Amino acid sequence: MLAVASRRPVVCVTVVGGHDRLPRGSAFVRAGPVRVVFPEPIPNDGGEVSEGAERALAERVAETFERVKKEHAL
User: Which residues form the domain of 18?
Assistant: First the structure.
């Protein structure tokens, strides 16, 4: 809701390889590569704050994360 209401572009910061370096439940960080990717901002026209607008923006964000993970897999 805040992202839609702000009417500002959304920047997805994607960390690729982070789960391999620090698995869920582990207290220890494992050595290895991690890639941090900042794709192009997602335009956010804002408009009316509604459930539909929030859902559409959330879908674009999720699609961006999935695309970046595939493009930059380690």
Answer: 2-23+32-71
15 in Cβ contact with 45 (< 8 Å): no
Amino acid residing at 20: D
Rg of the Cα trace of the chain? 15
- From CA 55, how far away is CA 49, in angstroms rounded? 11
Q: What is the pLDDT along the chain (74 residues), one digit of tens a residue?
A: 788 888 889 999 999 999 999 999 999 999 999 999 999 999 887 666 778 888 888 999 999 999 999 999 87
What global pTM score does this model have? 0.74
38/31 Cα distance (integer angstroms):
22
